[in-house]
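Entry type: protein chain
Record version: 2
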Amino acid sequence: MKLIVGLGNPGPDYRSTRHNVGFEVVDAVAARLGHNDGVLRSRFSALLAEVDIAGEKVLLAKPLTFMNRSGQSVIAAIQFYKLDPEVDLLVIADDLDLPCGHIRLREVGGDGGHNGLSDISLVLGHNRWARCRVGIGNSEVIPKVDYVLGRFTPEQQPMVAAAIQVAADAVSVWCQRGTTAAMNQFNKKVESNNGPSTSSSPKLEN
């Protein structure tokens, strides 16, 4: 089994904020596989959906613990299913240091000041697990906290919408072929504001 975790904050006040783009990627993956109502079942202090991606059993998760306690949900699922985070875990999170419309996958890395990633590393005891960062841009005039908890501008919306779909494609490649293959294919800028081209990308299968 693989565990795909999208990071965000629960509740209507945080819906569609920049900090919740991880939730949106997981919802996009779920919708492609026929879970049109998103990730709904509650367990491990998270909303969950069990899906099949190209024959691989996958647990999609959106932690409900708020961002800085995300590790609680992750470790609970890992321990229950006896998963190895170095090969079975992919975490999707927003990234202030990436421009809107970029995604970047890594096999290992620091948290970059992201509280959710930091907490996951803390509870796991290491940072050797895959992560997919979705660029949300940054602002020189808006404080960091206000920026990440704000909503995308009209100019940013088409870029992040494209990035969400590309990240969903990357989830499929990661599940089927691993982090290196996903990095080689998707660590580049989303070229079109009208949505990504996925003609060469494997589709999610149920």
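Comment: The domain at 2-186 is CATH 3.40.50.1470 (Rossmann fold).
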